[in-house]
Amino acid sequence: MSTVPMKVAKTGYIVLSAGFIVLGILLAFFPEFSVDLACDILGGIMMGFGAFKIAGYLSKDLYRLAFQYDLPLGCLFVILGVLIIAYPVQTMAFFSVVLGISILADGLFKIQIAMDSRRFGIDLWWLILVLALLSGLAAALLIFYPSTGGQIIVTLFGVALICEGIQNLIAAAFLVKIIKHQLPDDDMSRINEF
After folding, report:
1. How many Cα atoms within 13 Å fall on the side-chain side of residue 112?
2. In a domain, 135, yes or no
3. Nearest to 33 by CA among 93, 112, 111, 88
């Protein structure tokens, strides 16, 4: 089985997670940053991130932890990315709620992944859990306080992106194992029969 899809998904996941972190830092520490430009960058990153989430789900990594919930979330991120680019400023409050919900959902899935990682014996499970809780908290603030002042909402959004980026970076780096001679699922079931 080719490991190329897993390598592409893992690399893309890591690169776009770094993009979330950089954009989050810009928004958190420079909330006066151009909203139009930030929306274009965020929309592009989200579409790419969604595409890599879908690719990751379709690949078969060894642990099957990092990408296990990524098909619906990948589709959601692609759709949100398109909407953010199409309607940047007019719907900022709406997008803070919608993006807050998607980041919260991803954080909740990462809590489950952290618990599964603990059972697998992965040492950094607790870090994934802490970051999932932090991004969930920032996302909840975005959801419940979308009409807060413009710069405050941009700062909250930046913090949520930083936490989301870091937790995805750690999940991809430590939970996706690529083994050169990994057998497809059908071959694994045949081995277990012996």
Report:
1. 12
2. yes
3. 88
In angstroms, the CA 139 to CA 162 distance is 11
CB 10 within 8 A of CB 57: no
Q: Give me the number of domains the chain comprises.
A: 1
pTM, entire model: 0.69
* Angle at 22 (CA atoms; ends 18, 24), nearest 5 degrees: 110
By percentage, how much of the chain surpasses pLDDT 70? 78
| Residue 57 to residue 171: CA distance in whole angstroms | 14
DSSP for 99-136, written as a single string: HHHHHHHHHHHHHHHHHHHHHHT-TTHHHHHHHHHHHH
Quote the CA–CA distance of 56 and 176 in Å, as a whole number.
Answer: 9
Whether 190 is in a domain gets the answer no
CA distance 155 to 175: 30
Query: Could you tell me the residue range of the domain that residue 142 belongs to?
Result: 4-177
